[in-house]
């Protein structure tokens, strides 16, 4: 059985029905799985998804204080820029293009560390990276951890229900996980610690890194703008951390075929290019599924790609050693031939 078929912990309702088709759970089944996997008293190996959601819950009070005490046009603008553009773009830069797809390489560990901590840390690299490899291998098929065919909740709660790594990997298979994560700089457990905690990262280290990151940005925000800026920025981070969980459902057409000619060239799955995620986060999703290892996804002139601008800037100043850019291949293989051969009146 291929490694990506079993590297993730399967939900109780399974990936497939007995006949091999997609197993779509009910709302009750999804919620039962969600709360079961957050139960650290039942199984300490549930600690990572629990920790991931605890971080969101911990920042919700900042968001409430922002709304009650500090909401005005200026703070709303700051929250929008930070929560939508900066946090979104950083997710694309770090978790998506570097940690998962190795679309570029850093000159040294210093620039990797800086890039990792550019924003308030919310998503554990381990949960994102391994599951995203599976997503690309099984996009919109049984086994896809955020299969849009499963509905909104299937995707929204996927970080708990479908994305954590399996708890019973062999020593050899766990080594494959280590190889997939090594370049990220996230220190991994030994196999013995993995068997104890059910995760690549040790809980003590994950907590320590998060506290360091949060304390640093809390101090910076407070020194610049006092408690008002702290509530604005940390509240915006909470809003993003909840909102980003909706992306793959929307980015794959809510499970329906919403692809458009001359806009979405990858037809192997239901991924679509969306204007809003593209502009604020460089997430031109159909382009990305065409060339997942490209450091640029905004190929067309109007497709703004702030994540690519950051990577390109770091290359110019020496922070990035190399990158892959598939824009030329996109034009040669898809854009130019389609433009020449499209029929009159066709979009």
Automatic annotation (TrEMBL):
Q: Which UniProt keywords apply?
A: Fatty acid biosynthesis, Fatty acid metabolism, Iron, Lipid biosynthesis, Lipid metabolism, Membrane, Oxidoreductase, Transmembrane, Transmembrane helix
Topology in the lipid bilayer is annotated as: Multi-pass membrane protein
Single GO biological process annotation from the record: fatty acid biosynthetic process
Single GO term (MF): oxidoreductase activity, acting on paired donors, with oxidation of a pair of donors resulting in the reduction of molecular oxygen to two molecules of water
Nucleotide-binding as a keyword of this entry, yes or no, is no
- Any one annotated GO CC term: membrane
What Pfam families does the record point to?
FA_desaturase
The UniProt record lists the Fatty acid desaturase domain at 72-293
Q: What is this protein called?
A: Acyl-CoA desaturase
Q: Its family?
A: Belongs to the fatty acid desaturase type 2 family.
Q: Where are the transmembrane segments?
A: 47-67, 73-94, 214-242
Q: Where in the cell is it found?
A: Membrane
What InterPro entries has UniProt attached to this entry? Answer: Acyl-CoA_DS, FA_desaturase_dom
Origin species, per record, is Arachidicoccus ginsenosidivorans
Keyword presence, Oxidoreductase: yes
């Amino acid at each position: 059985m291929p490694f990506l078929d079993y590297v993730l912990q399967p939900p109780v309702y399974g990936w497939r029905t007995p006949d091999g088709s997609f197993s779509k759970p009910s709302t009750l089944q999804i919620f039962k799985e969600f709360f079961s996997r957050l139960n650290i008293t039942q199984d300490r190996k549930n600690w990572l998804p629990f920790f991931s959601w605890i971080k969101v819950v911990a920042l919700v009070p900042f968001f409430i204080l922002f709304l009650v005490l500090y909401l005005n046009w200026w703070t709303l603008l700051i929250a929008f820029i930070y929560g939508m553009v900066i946090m979104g773009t950083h997710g694309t830069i770090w978790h998506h293009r570097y940690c998962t797809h190795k679309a570029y390489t850093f000159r040294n560990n210093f620039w990797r560390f800086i890039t990792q901590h550019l924003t308030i840390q919310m998503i554990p690299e381990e949960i994102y990276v391994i599951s995203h490899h599976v997503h690309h291998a099984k996009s919109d098929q049984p086994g896809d951890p955020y299969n849009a065919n499963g509905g909104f909740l299937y995707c929204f709660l996927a970080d708990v229900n479908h994305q954590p790594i399996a708890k019973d990997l062999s020593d050899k298979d766990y080594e494959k996980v280590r190889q997939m994560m090594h370049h990220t700089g996230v220190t991994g457990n030994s196999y013995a610690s993995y068997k104890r905690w059910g995760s690549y990262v040790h809980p003590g280290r994950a907590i320590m890194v998060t506290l360091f990151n949060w304390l640093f940005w809390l101090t910076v925000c407070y020194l610049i703008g006092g408690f008002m800026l702290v509530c604005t920025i940390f509240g915006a981070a909470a809003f993003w951390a909840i909102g980003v969980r909706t992306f793959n459902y929307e980015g794959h057409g809510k499970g329906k075929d919403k692809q458009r000619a001359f806009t979405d060239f990858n037809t192997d799955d239901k991924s679509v290019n969306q204007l809003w995620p593209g502009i604020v986060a460089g997430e031109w999703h159909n382009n990305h599924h065409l060339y997942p290892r490209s450091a640029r996804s905004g190929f067309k002139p109007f497709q703004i790609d702030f994540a690519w601008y950051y990577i390109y800037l770091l290359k110019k100043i020496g922070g990035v050693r190399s990158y892959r850019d598939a824009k030329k291949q996109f034009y040669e293989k898809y854009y130019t031939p389609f433009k020449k051969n499209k029929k009159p009146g066709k979009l």
